[in-house]
## 1
Amino acid sequence: MTENGCEHRERVLTMDTMNPNIKRVEYAVRGPIVQRAAQIERELKMGVNKPFTEVIKANIGDCHAMGQKPITFFRQVLALCSYPDLLEDSKFPEDAKSRARRILQACGGGSLGAYSTSQGIEIIRQDVARYIERRDGGIPCDPDNIYLSIGASDAIVTMLKLLVSGEGMSRTGVMISIPQYPLYSAALAELGAVQISYYLEEDNCWSLEINELRRALQEAKKHCSPRALCIINPGNPTGQVQSRQCIEDVIRFAATENLFLMSDEVYQDNVYADGCKFHSFKKVLFEMGPEYSEKVELASFHSTSKCYMGECGFRGGYMEVVNLDPEVKVQLTKLVSVRLCPPVPGQALLDVVVNPPQPDEPSYDTFIKERTETLATLAEKANMTQEILNQVPGIKCNPVQGAMYSFPRIHLPPKAILEAKEKGQSPDMFYCMKLLEETGICLVPGSGFGQRDGTYHFRMTILPSKEKLKIVLAKIKEFHQHFTDQYS
Amino acid sequence: MSENGALPHRGRVLTVDTMNPNVKKVDYAVRGPIVQRALQIEKELKEGVKKPFEEVIKANIGDAHAMGQRPITFFRQVMALCSYPQLLDDNKFPEDAKNRARRILQSCGGNSIGAYTTSQGIDCVRHDVAKYIQRRDGGIPSDPDNIYLTTGASDGIVTILKLLTTGEGRTRTGVMISIPQYPLYSASIAELGAVQVNYYLNEEKCWSLDISELQRSLQAAREHCNPRVLCIINPGNPTGQVQSRQCIEDVIRFAAKENLFLMADEVYQDNVYAEGCEFHSFKKVLFEMGPEYSRKIELVSFHSTSKCYMGECGFRGGYMEVINMDQEVKAQLSKLVSVRLCPPVPGQALMDLVVNCPQPGEPSYQTFMKERTAVLSALAEKAKLTEEILNTVPGISCNPVQGAMYSFPRITLPQRAINEAKAKGQTPDMFYCMKLLEDTGICLVPGSGFGQRDGTYHFRMTILPPTDKLKIMLHKLKEFHQTFTQQFA
């Protein structure tokens, strides 16, 4: 050490000294392939010559980025809330103004800029509770069981945090589907919990089989303490909409096996296929009677990011907790208080989502028109995607029953698999990287979501405009054929 | 288990015994038990229950708008334009607001603030933040790639603490933090299972930071953990002191010598009131100390849209600047923030306006300056008023409120009161604050929520209520303290 106190030294924070759990975290939706796509975009901007003129980002469920328009009414209310002088402006409809006034009255100092209570603005939680009651055929919902959150991700992570305890064999295990949305695997890695994978049945339209849950659970009990069962319905990346029977079976299973249920229902309005219907876990639970509805601990999650709103950037969301131990609930409330409150614009947005224009209100017609069009377009694109991909020899796509993605299985020639492995890449990453370099289309390899050994997939959103989607699908078809020939 | 699968009575899966034990150790006094009681009292007042007061005055939290401070007009105009771009055709909005809105929207996916942004935050906003930092720090370069937009400063602080927490037992990460401190730090340290390493600010010297105290604290800590990081809040919360430039240099030298990662919480950087006090950013001082420090010290600085003259707490806007972070660790940081997708876009937009505010010559400049100046001078007045009035109360001693938004006066409590508190299982200052709340409706946070030297008692009170209300509040406090002292004599 020299006299001035400073000489060459190693950094305090290095790969060796940092939190080891974080090193294990992966999040493919924004992982290496997306970084490469962003780099290619920069190269295009700089005039580098490529076999394509733009990168098509079909990797992330971001509707507005792909051209979907926001709902007019929602943005009017947000503008009014942001700048209340506009309440004097005759260009805004009365129903938007009355919603804005109501929200502002519930904010400290009448401003969106004040902190709200940590659980979220009370009248908004009340509106959410009423929305849930309407949705679930009148089954009561207590606003005190509603926690507004920073997108659904925030609430999911908070619940997982609460659930994680123990060490070694008593360490919390959390059951999650394979394939899954990698927030779950990332959060479990960060928290040092044990991920318990249960496989969805690809040959049966990604159905959830109870004997598979049982298998996964039995295995897991040998090395951890399984405590929670997570289910994403409608599914991400797989798009299946579980049947009511399935949901009942899962509830029974959770009851029998003493598992805390977490139901991720952010795609609840994104249901396209004939014969499919969204059944909320809350509703089914209560319809199964008090022996279940008074016992099973359930947390359900929703968000403003998907459905017909697509307002990802606002980070609006909520969770409803059912049968949560009152002392634990106090701990939950305390935990969320440290981060003060969820973003108030997101809370306001959620309020208009659960409290949209009614038939007798001025904005109703436009609202319904916009909502219907958005959902109908998504349904068309879901169907188109499945049809076109199923025409490609070597690609097999299950029906996109709901959500926003296709997750087709791709057959890769052994030579390609070998080359990938030599490069230290998972074969579907190798495939997707080549697709990106040759066509500018950015997808996420199935390995980022999990899949059965020896199978390969990719996740592609159905969000590009219809015209662009047709082009994307045609290019994928061409690429796949070319790739197959190249590695035969 | 009966045949129909119906359950025998069973305990819940998630109980206080089976839940995450670290979460149980978390406390956050700013929204803790006294605030819960305050809310309950508000409900009772609404229901018509008679009380010795008509309203609860919430002087517990640094929430400027809730206490009547107005938002900056320009900022809200741009936010409205971004939310509902049809308004770009409305001639009621000034051109400079429209330009900013267009620029922000152009950098959003599909030109919508409803799209996700990159996880590090909108590119052009990070560029604007970097330019702001450069201007603030006399031209010292700031790389936009070192800027991470965050969900308020709290989010950034927790993320960095997460990265730093590792080891077990004697090698467990120790985090140095001031006593008194803003309890986000103690809460996060508890949740992460890191070791809190306290260093005491010097109340007799206006809450100054003494290097000898840092040294003492560090030596003691090394016996049971691995101290890796030193956190400093400047201007201070709850204490309000604005550290001198010399002090900041000394802290940097100390961190260099002792191999500590520096975290500088600077969210109150515009809230400086006292004569002779000036905000010196850690980044600037670090670079002015020359390459032997500026190339070595790992520093993260935090800022937010919640305080200063904006007070936009609800938008959850913020950023951090990382200096000399290991490149591989930075890649891990980027990966970690990607899991939560992106910070709220309205907050990112708002941050853009804060760092890219109206310039002389622009249509909104005059109004902007007028509003900004009015807010900051009102705060300065109230800081002084608070200090003066509290210092006229026998048994209350208030250090100058040099900056931030709070007073943290020391209160002398009669021994009988201390005994009664302890008999009730309450900290004496909680006992005092609860009585104050029940008798006057004034909600403060007891000093025990922030940390204080053993045997001393304090409370934290914001300086945010409007001046008239603040005067009334301070007089009620004076009255209460005298009554309390007599009652427990």
Note: The first strand of chain B starts at residue 57 and ends at 58.
## 2
Amino acid sequence: MVGWAIALHGGAGDIPFNLPDERRIPRETALGRCLDLGVSALKSGKHPLDVTELVVRELENHPDFNAGKGSVLTEQGTVEMEASIMEGKTKRCGAVSGLTTVVNPISVARLVMEKTPHIYLAFDAAEAFARAHGVETVEPSHFITPENIARLKQAKEFNRVQLDYTAPTPEIRGDSQIGTVGCVAVDNAGNLASATSTGGYVNKMVGRIGDTPVIGVGTYANHLCAVSATGKGEYIIRATVAREVAAVMEYKGLSLAEAAAYAVEQSGPKGTCGLVAVSANGEVAMPFNTTGMFRACATEDGYTEIAIWPKN
Amino acid sequence: MGGWAIAIQGAAGDIPIDLPDERRIPRLNALRYCLDLGVSALKSGKSPLDVTELVVRELENNPEFNAGKGSVLTTEGTVEMEASIMDGKTKRCGAVSGLTTVVNPISLARLVMEKTPHIYLAFDAAEAFARAHGVETVEPSHFITPYNIARLKQVKELNRVQLDHKEPQIYGDSQTGTVGCVAVDRAGNLASATSTGGHVNKMVGRIGDTPIIGAGTYANHLCAVSATGKGEMIIRGTVARDVAALMEFKGMSLAEAAACAVDRSGPRGTCGLVAVSASGEVAMPFNTTGMFRACATEDGFVEVAIWPKN
């Protein structure tokens, strides 16, 4: 067993290199802050399940990321949030979809895992479950930001579903640099966990479920690794991306880095996805085949990274 | 490339060996009927996507199986159906959850795949989508059978979630679970389709393994898989995906990979699956007491069974 490690992402996509400071700096700062939060939690002995949940809650609360407050809007201008969480050693997991008033979807996903005999609850029933458990809820308008109202308008003008990183007309709104949020962590004992949360696709059909709440697709953890994926949901589903990382490690003996790179590569054409992953022995991988991915990681042996675009 | 092949499941679980004739025979007959339908369709050149959809529609319409009409009931006595379908060569897929009035959930899953840029629609929106596309809908009461009303009552008395195969002393058979079909044609086109009403007494809004791509349903260029059993275990075990992963990454045969995936899914009594490979092989392993199943291959092998063969 090696040291602890943590990695988190704020979405992969076509993040333009000329992203203005006022769009870039708040996000980088948030990534740094979440990384510190997560590292402190790991150092103080918190279980990776607790660590990933608290980091994702932080990202959900931040309006610049596509999860919780700041979620992108459905075609009807509403917010529908989904999330999932998974613990590696036991493979216990929880997932929710279709939340409209719950401040922290990732925490409801965890409640489903811990308080019900089920894994996945959705829509009205998930909302009712949240209330029954005294989870914090607010008016739906809480989650809606002016940027996302503008982004929906832009997407409708183009009359197509858009992963909110594509910025085909920089002159209208040059940045759509938000996607999904996620966190993976491992402690000294090799306990692993993964947590992912999102508002989904800009202009998505009401009731559309993406990759984020699908275990094995957007989120996965077993005794070898923990993975959280982000990108074009439909591609990630078809490629069962998160499970793929663990499967090639286990069945082909690939290292975390090789397995993570492989899973991203076979997920689809360039611009499809990215992921963050940690292994039971404290390694980290953060591959992506998009222009960029908001990401951050740290390992016990002192490695730290906060970045958006590729390193080269 | 081998010949065509098809396999069908009508659920795995604790099917008692002394299942009375009136509960056993109609289901066996239905399996045979569906197998013939599927085989004819394959022989006439229909794509596996069409074949698996039509077989699952047939099983959804049969009130003896836990899908469509005859679905088990939620804790509130309602029906919430889910389904998914996947095409192996393209990996296109479609899934639906939370249907209450749609006669054939599997067909709606296919429509989501073919008529939207998405894969998975659920609950009110899925129902609205069905209506917008003129899909056949009926009153929710259509799906509810006296048998399932009684089973729900039984389970509530026992106050636990049950995969509906248990408790022989009150109702000796509760041998319904999920329905599914996998098929391959001579050209190696593969498809998988799965449909269910879920767990008896499940929480309203609970989604199981059936609409989860990689868990209850999966198909790629190597094989097509449809799983059945304890939904939460199948999700954790990513069972359907694992069959293909073991073939692809460990070079296992279909039979080995299918058996291994079932074995790893959990303790005995967890699950079963049906699978076909691109080269026309069939596998139908299960670690439960029994699994309603049927299969046929082009070289003449046919099997319709409930319990293990030995």
Note: The two ends of chain B are 30 Å apart (CA to CA).
